[in-house]
Amino acid sequence: MTLRIIATGGTFDKHYDELAGKLTFSESQLPDVLKRARLTVPVELEVRSSLIDSLDMVDKDRQEILQSCKNSQEKAIVIIHGTDTMRETAQVLGAAKLDKVIVFTGAMIPYEIANSDALFNLGFACGVVQLLTPGVYVAMNGQVFLWDNVQKDRSAGVFVTNS
Amino acid sequence: MTLRIIATGGTFDKHYDELAGKLTFSESQLPDVLKRARLTVPVELEVRSSLIDSLDMVDKDRQEILQSCKNSQEKAIVIIHGTDTMRETAQVLGAAKLDKVIVFTGAMIPYEIANSDALFNLGFACGVVQLLTPGVYVAMNGQVFLWDNVQKDRSAGVFVTNS
Amino acid sequence: MTLRIIATGGTFDKHYDELAGKLTFSESQLPDVLKRARLTVPVELEVRSSLIDSLDMVDKDRQEILQSCKNSQEKAIVIIHGTDTMRETAQVLGAAKLDKVIVFTGAMIPYEIANSDALFNLGFACGVVQLLTPGVYVAMNGQVFLWDNVQKDRSAGVFVTNS
Amino acid sequence: MTLRIIATGGTFDKHYDELAGKLTFSESQLPDVLKRARLTVPVELEVRSSLIDSLDMVDKDRQEILQSCKNSQEKAIVIIHGTDTMRETAQVLGAAKLDKVIVFTGAMIPYEIANSDALFNLGFACGVVQLLTPGVYVAMNGQVFLWDNVQKDRSAGVFVTNS
């Protein structure tokens, strides 16, 4: 089995720009992260040309991500995505009913900041993507959610089911 | 689903003792690690009374770990273990044929050292333990291995199948 | 010799708020930082009641910092301050001609973010403050600047003399 | 003023070798550390050909370090050294009465391990080396010690004067 990992940006990949004095995007940190993870399972890393905050994501971006999934030779796909609109992108992909396992994950604290959950979440997603049946999922907080039954509870900073 | 996580020590949990000038064991870092992981899935953490290097593990230790698994109310168990004899302990548990999912993981670089794979591996294990069928597994390097078909390639520092 | 360290906020002490998704201020990280530094020289830590970005600092804040320095029993004072208006606050203190050594320092990257210069800068400041003659200084980039001959080169992200 | 920084190894520069499962020496981490420190003061970094634990340092090593200091064009020299025999090497250099400022520093916890004092100590040493009068000093725990009045209190893990 080969995994495809699609990096779209999001909190996971935010980088502190010391000249601007704020968190923004630079080169993706995923190549370093994957090296650190010491994976022997083959991985195709696809870094989107423009890493963005998921609040800035528009329908065109979601269509392009859908196209990436359609084009993917790999049946197991992890998408690293901002948490704020992870659900919206998951819905676009879920409706497309591809015969692939697509798992969204992200982070509440950027990878490069102390106490980040990014590496845990990526490990979790890389695990479940190999075992789930085809479909679209959100993997956050140590849980797997179905794309059509998940939402972010912004006041608590965690993902929960809809009901 | 509730997870049980059993901390036995191993490289994952090694701590630098600045007075002795070497890596040893102190309090388990797992409580901090789990907080950082932002889990909402319930977790029972069981820290063994004496954290040890897996090269120092003797049969009595393995029998106690087996007993912990037998006693566990949780059907999904992650065991954090040193990599050098992870296979040996997995064999003791595998032979017992418990009706539970037991996933071993660990780290090549201690959690508190730069570039550690510990958090990724724990995330991976916490994911697959929720989806695998009952049995005993080793989850390392982004792969799931069966307990009776895994070994550590010490020169490469990775886990591989036996054949 | 006892050191007084006054924490005013600034990039050094910024903390990522995962619910708001931005860098802001919470509890000062200085108590942890000082523990980590393993100091045996006595230190009085004074954390200002409201940690702020130095771009938000107004004259009232500067007068209060001046008052803290005047009140200080310690003759050696390190002030942790945002870099953007470090020069302005140094000018207020410099003009007061106190018979104390006052050293400003800060960070270009927050203490809790990978690759931060915060700990180096604090070490540097805690060293020079013990050896300089009374006066007001800025200690950044491994250099000591006089309060009336320093400016931040914002495009390069470094401190330089005026000429 | 230009600084010379001589890296000899010691706890500061220890690196975890994941295949051997222990702390040892690899490439010096000083080039990365200095980049992180964002120095604008010119620095000549001299990494000794063989980085060693200071307990393994023999008289020949000390004579070579002395020779490096004699040959140094720079009048301000920071030596990164293991703490266990820092005093012994300082005595060899102190007895040579060079017309240079030589400051020893090191770390109780390796640079790459969580909670390390390495970066603070290096900052401290880089500061005081620019201000001290010629002589040989040990800079640890936020204090400057004279080479002939310093010892390591091993049970407390701190440097103290002899009396």
From TrEMBL, chains A, B, C, D:
<dbReference type="InterPro" id="IPR037152">
    <property type="entry name" value="L-asparaginase_N_sf"/>
</dbReference>
<dbReference type="InterPro" id="IPR006034">
    <property type="entry name" value="Asparaginase/glutaminase-like"/>
</dbReference>
<dbReference type="GO" id="GO:0004067">
    <property type="term" value="F:asparaginase activity"/>
</dbReference>
<feature type="active site">
    <location>
        <position position="83"/>
    </location>
</feature>
<dbReference type="Pfam" id="PF00710">
    <property type="entry name" value="Asparaginase"/>
</dbReference>
<protein>
    <submittedName>
        <fullName>Asparaginase domain-containing protein</fullName>
        <ecNumber>3.5.1.1</ecNumber>
    </submittedName>
</protein>
<keyword id="KW-0378">Hydrolase</keyword>
<dbReference type="InterPro" id="IPR027474">
    <property type="entry name" value="L-asparaginase_N"/>
</dbReference>
<dbReference type="InterPro" id="IPR036152">
    <property type="entry name" value="Asp/glu_Ase-like_sf"/>
</dbReference>
<dbReference type="InterPro" id="IPR027475">
    <property type="entry name" value="Asparaginase/glutaminase_AS2"/>
</dbReference>
<feature type="domain" description="L-asparaginase N-terminal">
    <location>
        <begin position="3"/>
        <end position="155"/>
    </location>
</feature>
